[in-house]
Fold each of these.
Amino acid sequence: MDRNIRTIDDVMTLLDGLFAPEADRWTEAGAEWWDGFYADRGKPVPFFVGKPDESLVSSVERGLVPAGGRALDLGCGPGRNTLYLASLGYEVDAVDLSAGAIRWAEERVREAGAEGVRFVCGDVFAAALEGPYDLVYDSGCFHHLPPHRRVGYLALLDRVLAPGGHFALTTFAAGEGGMGAELSDAEFYRRGKLEGGLAYTDDSLRAIFADLTEVEVRRMRDEPADSPVFGESFLWTGLFRRPA
């Protein structure tokens, strides 16, 4: 008989364990799954392309975020947004659970001759991340977190985002043309799996990040294959600012 719940970490571990092992893609246990996912670089995965998010580029070009400073790329994958931020003069810390993704991203950075990038392989909640960051960017990490892990995600933002700094994300959109599972938080625990990722409404994103000031929340624009930027309308893009 287990009676070993004493801390918040104990509660989080217990809730993590309610999901099937193959659904555990947000902690170290999921690293093997992601390494397999990134092993075949030629498969038709939209975000394998070597170009940045249209929303990130648009925010920079419109002056909504500064073109330089310190940036944190959460769930950096093959490093396409990391490379863009480095090209702007950002000093970038890029973290991902998958060693395979990190290797791919490192290759891209070397080929581009980019500087000022530090890669961290590991769980975003356990990684040694030293803020403050002027920009925290998340393209596709947030929607793979189970509901209880939002607590740690918000705590991470609170810890590392600089006063006046910006937080931007892309995440699965609920509703027509969206992607991801449109289930209640409780239903994910009943099923014991995340169904490929959680879908969010624009209002739910505003509520979750209510401690930040909204700059923009919109659907990502579709971009053609020959576009220099990545864009898929099944995603929300959000940009928020921390009060100074």
Note: The chain has one domain: 8-241.
Amino acid sequence: MAAPSPASPNRGGTVQSVDRTIELLELLADAGGKASLSELAIKTELPLPTIHRLIRTLLAHGYVRQLHSRQYALGPRLIRLGHGAGRQFGSDALPYLDRVARDLGESANLATIDRDMVVYVAQASSSHSMRMFTEVGRRVFPHSTGVGKAVLAQLPDSEVLEIVQRIGMPPATDKSLSTVEELLAELAKIREQGFAIDDGEQEVGVRCFAVPVPGAPTPTALSISGPDGRVTMEFGDSAVPVLQEIAGEIGEVLLAG
């Protein structure tokens, strides 16, 4: 029996060439956005001619670009797709964030990881005149935010270490975690208790409670934040179960979508 052609469906009902193309894009993203053909060949165990053909197709459409070093990097056309997906992602989740803000009385945020940074994709504001406001699309270092730590806690420590090696851990405040050892210990605690706390680590006087969103296509977290005079540790005791319940509902919507 002849082997299937690269464009033919495989036994799982998917198209082999599309599977391989997606794998290449994901490998580039996991490698920090760039890699050589030989590196991609080693990781995929595909023949160099096959990878070269797929990369040339991605180059032609702007989804990959070639660097002066002869490595290949993610291309600018992906930015448009990412922005569109992010807007839809945030739009689908917004009714749930509105419910969090209404039920708990503070600002609710949804954030996900993108190229080693955490990006806010949706927010529902508190009704208080003094409230936490985060611009949708804002990118922050993950180690110093509640949503960022809740996102990192969903990754293996080896991947967290790679991210930290690429972007570092610059302090946002005097309370920010400053060493890899502190970060890994904090992530272990978050995995055990099921939620993260940002106690003035991103902004002085602001406290945040965050939980993972189960079932999200990429590590994602839901949070509630506000002035630490209102968002106390006792507030967190009642807020975290609400966040976990609604995060589960958001995850079900994303899985269904």
Note: Residues 1-9 have pLDDT under 50 and may be disordered.
Amino acid sequence: MTFKIIPGLAGIASDYDAFILDLWGVVHNGREPYPGALDCMAKLRQGGRPIILVSNAPRTNNFVISFLEGLGVARNCYDHILTSGDLTREALTHRTHPLLKERGNAFYQIGATRDKGLEDGLDYRRVATLADADFIICTGFVNDEIETPDDYRPLLGEALSRDLPMFCANPDLTVMRGHEMIYCAGSIAALYAEMGGRVALFGKPYPEVYRQAMAALSITDPARILALGDSMRTDIKGATTAGIDSVLISGGIHAEDWGLSAGALPSDAQVEAVVREYAFSPRYVTGHMVW
């Protein structure tokens, strides 16, 4: 597919009936909404076209809704929300996942204290040591401002020796917080898998999240949906696999690699290089989500 670099969404929005928006790197940077993002969302919804926010956040949607409100993204700015935390909780609820077979209900969590709620109301208990655990839930880093995946190698080595499977509630490797790139849970999961650990990942780019997003939007034809995201690895890959047109937001996690200032557009050559690297292409590329 040939991509097209565009200044904003005004010229293409009418071609679609609904929109899937990533959060970090598209709607906000972890500190505040991007300039023009809320106005663009309002214009996208004109005529009754729905928006679903699909995030690889390792928390259930109620926590993310509260977080968004704190950033100034009100609940009436969008129609639906679905997180990788929701999908992780769903797997914990139904207990049909192969990695949960013949496992008890004790889990060890790798992540910050703010990453909570996945087991609320369910028959699970959080334990303080790997020796007492039946499996691991990874939601991220205890301190993502200073830690790297290698800091977790000794812990993962012990987990591997105990053959503990890992449920990763956020498959992202990195994300932008303000103007800083930070590691996410997916980078710990990737290291554990590299070491030989068994890992289950939930969220983008995996098919289930797009199946549920389309159901929430009440749309059966993926060609009627446009997805916006800043990650080729998750957002663009997932949309492409689902048959959904996508917009790569270059002002997110790829901005540093491309040396872009805020909202700047990449060159054709820069996009062509990343398309060759991943072997798939977005339909459109723009700097930030603006109208």
Note: The mean pLDDT is 95.
Amino acid sequence: MTMDRTAPNTPKARYKALYAASILALAALLCVCFGMVYTLRLHPEGDHSRLMQLAYLCMVAGFFVLAAQGLLVYKKILTRMGMNAARADELAEQLERLTVMDALTQAYNRGKFEEVVTHELSNVRRYGLDLSGIMLDLDGFRAINQAHGYSAGDRLLANLAHYLNDKLRTNDFLFRWHGGKFIILCPHTDVDRAAIVAEKLRTLVGHKIFGGKIRVFLSLGVAQAGEEDTMESFLQRLQAGLAAAKNCGRNQVSVVRAQLLPF
């Protein structure tokens, strides 16, 4: 355990040791230079060629030590800049995640839904690709909050979102709409296959006990986007499908196959 704690500090300790050694080397060179100047002052006559050679050597050595110090400082600055850049990237990633994720459930939020559905509807119009959606709601969520408390309800929503995400395909998107409602977007999927996905989720959730004591059931509405759809008209059909599932007894899947006519 001690080695794990001290290992990250080894480069920093090495840097300090090298920098301290360079300071000592400069101090030693200054002392030598001072000694030579003092010698020349005491004995100005005579042959001082060796002394001058030593002075040149000290000067060259001093330049090398200063260059080493400069490299150490430059490396330290680059390291610090790299750390700051990495931290900035991490913070930017966290900020971007906060702007598109629902804080409670970690599913995508409504802002991200608008971005994704706009893009996918564009693919429907431009390339004729299939796009289906599933709007689901927890049956009796208000009663669950009243019976178990709002904190338990929040944990249930978070656990449900995680469970749904784990069961979805990699190209599907899960969004928190509001309350106990979620929307799933299924690109490259027609309404029949989306209905199969919805029924599978309804069955899986209905057989799972959340928090060791809460059993929940889902009502789900399924619809497929058409080339003339806007986000609003697509949402209207998803909501109509969910309302139909609720009105027909809940805990079931209702499929809207025809576009609703505008009022």
Note: Confidence is low (pLDDT under 50) at residues 1-8.
